Amino acid sequence: MFQRIVNFWFSSFITERLLASPLFNRIASKTHQHVSSITEKGAKSGNEFIKAFKDNLEKEARNNMRK
Fold first, then answer.
1. For residue 67, what pLDDT band results from cuts at 50, 70 and 90?
2. What is the pLDDT of residues 2-60, one digit of tens each?
3. Residues 24, 18 contacting (CB under 8 angstroms)
4. Within 13 Å and on the Cβ side, how many CA atoms surround 30?
5. pLDDT value at position 44?
6. Do residues 15 and 21 make contact, with C-beta atoms less than 8 angstroms apart?
7. Where are the beta strands (DSSP E) in 1-67?
8. What is the DSSP letter of 43?
9. What angle is formed at CA 44 by the lines to CA 32 and CA 36, rounded to 5 degrees?
10. Rounded distance between C-alpha atoms, residue 30 and residue 23, angstroms
11. Looking at residue 22, what is its pLDDT?
């Protein structure tokens, strides 16, 4: 029980110090921007892949109907 209390206080102390730190906030902001841009790029290529895949399925379905 004592260990849990100490861990809670310690993690609370660390969290409050990090939130008050301007350097940490700058780093967090830059990291957020990088992650957002990577996610956006991944979503674009994923959407392009899904569209191309769907188009190919439709083409194959039309080709199979002709046979």
1. low
2. 899 999 999 999 999 999 999 999 999 999 999 999 998 888 888 888 999 999 999 99
3. yes
4. 6
5. 83
6. no
7. none
8. H
9. 0
10. 11
11. 95
Amino acid identity of residue 59, one-letter, is K
| Angstrom distances, CA of residue 24 to CA of 11, 35, 48 | 16, 16, 36
Instruction: Give me 57's structure tokens.
Output: 């399925």
What is the radius of gyration, based on Cα positions, of the chain? 25
Is 90 exceeded by the pLDDT of residue 64?
Answer: no
For residue 11, what is the DSSP state?
H
Distance CA 61, CA 67 (A): 10
Q: Tokens in use for 30? A: 């830059």
Spatial distance between the Cα atoms of 45 and 35, rounded to a whole number of angstroms: 16
